[in-house]
From TrEMBL:
It comes from Roseobacter litoralis (strain ATCC 49566 / DSM 6996 / JCM 21268 / NBRC 15278 / OCh 149). This is TRAP transporter large permease protein. Signal peptide: none annotated. InterPro entries: DctM, TRAP_DctM. It is a multi-pass membrane protein. Its main location: membrane. Belongs to the TRAP transporter large permease family. It is found in: Cell inner membrane. Part of the tripartite ATP-independent periplasmic (TRAP) transport system. The complex comprises the extracytoplasmic solute receptor protein and the two transmembrane proteins. The chain crosses the membrane at residues 7-30, 50-70, 135-158, 170-195, 215-236, 242-265, 277-298, 310-327, 356-382, 394-422. One of its GO terms (molecular function) is transmembrane transporter activity.
Length: 427
């Protein structure tokens, strides 16, 4: 059955059928060919159960928060401010790409939205200042992936919902690895540009008073992040309530910068409905598929197969890493998460690993999938913002950062405390 499900999944995706529909179709197929019970009779109850969760209400709020910040012009101000602080490094404005992506990751919760925001603002600068298009665009694609690691993260909310684990602890666990990845991206950029200075473009310095004045444009984002994350860990709000507070804060910031208009609000709400609908269709479809898989005995098959291999816990987790890297080439990231979590996570826990730690490791591997062809969404988002050049340039530029993520996955396996230090310290 494992082989039939894999072939069916890849075949339907190859036909460009929407992912959420593919998951439902696979569920119907498993019910028809592998189950002795009429599982589709429970479809209505399954759809209701999968969507009737207060936790999932946080998703449209975080999407709307990001939409407001993007469409109100706050991104342009943030990028200009960070340009004044980091463009003196080897690589120049490439570091502003990564730093801006890091800042917006702390509010948007979406990698694709983060990449789109930075690409829209940064690409005109690359052409004007003569930066290498490969490294410049690759850094934007990689920096955008931080949106699902640094809290608040929509993917971590989905992971916590599917595994019934603590979302605040997941947010805490993602903070250090997310910031460490951002610093590692900047270090890789410095090394590349010291070896090949022609790739880094112009290094610029600004008068210190001008740098200090630029900090004013960073304060609203930092306050918004502190408001969202701080209210969760102070016990004043649940993640869903904090997301609602964040939307209100984003609106006030946009109003203060003069970015509020009827057109902006209409576009923000429309974008929120589209993105949330896509996410919820995938979550509900995956819940139905997982229900049919479990009822048909796939979980037992996989468990028996892995037990038969006689792997040590370390060898097992390395097999899981390779599995996610390979699947990430072909399956959209959120779909990859919701399809595999109910099957893989129970086996990971049997091996003695922590569910919070594995969530962060999975997110790193999902981040890699966002910048690896042929389905790496961030690659297409960045290419869409470019005026010229090929997708191959973005792929090549993202390769060093992809290897950096692989190094982070190795570090997480070798030193689990990278992810678990904050959750354990604040328990």
């Amino acid at each position: 059955m494992i082989g039939y499900v894999s072939i069916g999944l890849l075949g339907l995706l190859a036909l460009s059928i929407p992912v959420g529909i593919v998951l439902f179709l696979l569920g119907f197929g498993i019910d028809a060919f592998f189950s002795s019970f009429p599982l589709t009779k429970g479809l209505g109850n399954m759809v209701w159960s999968a969507s009737n969760s207060a936790t999932l209400i946080a998703i449209p709020f975080f999407v709307l928060l990001g939409e407001i910040l993007v469409r109100s012009g706050v991104a342009t101000r943030t990028y200009a401010a960070l340009d004044r602080w980091v463009s003196w490094l080897p690589g120049g404005l490439v570091h502003a790409n990564i730093a801006t992506a890091t800042m917006f990751s702390a509010t948007s919760g979406s990698s694709v939205a983060t990449a789109a925001t930075v690409a829209t603002v940064a690409m005109p600068q690359a052409e004007k200042l003569g930066y290498d298009p490969k490294l410049f665009s690759g850094a934007i694609a990689a920096g955008g992936t931080l949106g699902i690691m640094i809290p608040p993260s929509i993917n971590l909310i989905v992971y916590g919902f599917l595994t019934q684990s603590s979302i605040p602890q997941l947010f805490l666990a993602g903070l250090i690895p997310g910031l460490a990845l951002a610093l590692m991206f900047m270090l890789v950029t410095v090394i590349i540009c010291m070896i090949r200075p022609d790739l880094g473009g112009l290094r610029r310095t600004f008068p210190f008073p001008q740098m200090l004045r630029a900090l004013i444009d960073l304060v609203p984002i930092l306050l918004l992040f502190g408001m969202i994350v701080g209210s969760i860990y102070a016990g004043w709000a649940t993640p869903t309530e904090a997301a609602a507070v964040g939307v209100a804060g984003a609106f006030v910031i946009a109003l203060a910068f003069g970015g509020v208009s009827w057109d902006m609000l209409t576009q923000s709400l429309t974008g929120t409905v589209k993105i949330t609908s896509m996410i919820m269709l995938i979550v509900i479809g995956a819940s139905f598929l997982n229900f049919t898989l479990a009822s048909a005995g796939l979980g037992r098959e996989l468990t028996a197969f892995m037990d038969g291999l006689g792997l040590s816990p370390l060898a097992f987790i390395l097999v899981v890493v390779v599995l996610y890297i390979v699947l990430g080439f072909f399956i959209e990231t959120l779909s990859l998460m919701v399809v595999t979590i109910p099957i893989i996570v129970p086996m990971v826990l049997v091996q003695g690993y922590d569910v919070i730690w594995f969530g962060i490791l999975m997110i790193v591997l999902i981040e890699m999938a966002l910048i690896t062809p042929p389905v790496g969404l961030n690659l297409y988002v960045v290419q869409g913002a470019r005026k010229s050049g090929s997708l191959n340039e973005v792929m090549l530029g993202a390769l060093p950062y992809c290897l950096t993520m692989l190094l982070m996955a190795v570090l997480l396996i070798a030193f689990p405390s990278i992810a678990l230090f904050l959750p354990n310290a604040l328990q």
